[in-house]
Design goal:
- By secondary structure, the chain is an alpha/beta fold.
- The protein has one domain: P-loop containing nucleotide triphosphate hydrolases (Rossmann fold, 3-Layer(aba) Sandwich).
- 43% of the residues lie in helices and 17% in strands.
- The protein has a 5-stranded parallel sheet. A 3-stranded antiparallel sheet has the order 6-5-9. The chain has a two-stranded antiparallel ribbon with strand order 7-8.
């Protein structure tokens, strides 16, 4: 299976990629991680380092080449899941024809729920592990909190949990505006190809992971282990 995981900030792309990856037997591939691992390359490294240090996107041609090389690794033999890429129409067009895709999983969560969820997110200062303090209930929708075992401390390393500056509510609302502007053409692009599979996130990760697996099995049958 070759999958793109698409969703607004806070929709759970990272959570579901980590949970679906072992069930599907394919790796969750982060373009950002692939680029960071290429920083030591004598030819591409300086360009990547300069872009990342300045906080700008790497050129699409470079990113696609790095991504294609990553997808040639043995762990991608049965497929892969792209988490957070492409982010816009231009990037989608850059990989179209270069990287085959079977399905685009589009995570749908109401915007106000996303704002609550992101604003309650806490990240470990040491290892980056993420937790969420919000217990969200709206009608039949229930997104339970993902609390640490010890308040304010990371389960994995004991590091301090903090709110990232870009998770503050006013910043999140601005991010939502940018997301909708950039992804509307992207969604239309994949809709026209018949690749979009809508996933209505109406429960916590345990329940939703099984729901997504069910949707994939119903559509793809024997392709799903």
């Amino acid at each position: 299976m070759k999958i793109i995981l698409l969703g607004a900030p806070g929709s759970g792309k990272g959570t579901y990629s980590r949970r679906l990856s072992p069930k599907l037997g394919i790796p969750a591939v982060s373009v950002g991680e692939a680029l960071r691992k290429t920083r030591d390359d004598p030819e591409l490294g300086p360009i990547i380092k300069d872009c990342q240090d300045r906080g700008v996107l790497c050129p699409d041609e470079l990113t696609v080449n790095v991504l294609k090389k990553r997808l040639e690794d043995p762990d991608c033999e049965k497929g892969f899941m792209l988490d957070g890429y492409p982010r816009n129409l231009h990037q989608a067009e850059a990989i179209d024809g270069e990287i085959p895709i079977d399905v685009v999983l589009k995570l749908n969560v109401p915007e106000e729920i996303l704002i609550q969820k992101i604003s309650a997110r806490r990240s470990c200062k040491e290892c980056g592990d993420i937790y969420n303090l919000a217990d969200i209930r709206l009608g039949d929708l229930h997104l339970p909190p993902m609390n640490p075992k010890v308040e304010g401390k990371c389960d994995k390393c004991g590091g301090e949990l903090v709110q990232r500056p870009d998770d503050a509510e006013e910043v999140v609302r601005d991010r939502m505006v940018v997301y909708k502007k950039e992804t509307a053409p992207l969604i239309d692009f994949y809709n026209k190809k018949g690749l979009i599979m809508d996933v209505v996130v109406s429960a916590g990760p345990d329940i939703m992971t099984e729901k997504i697996m069910g949707q994939l099995k119903e559509k793809f049958g024997d392709m799903i282990a």
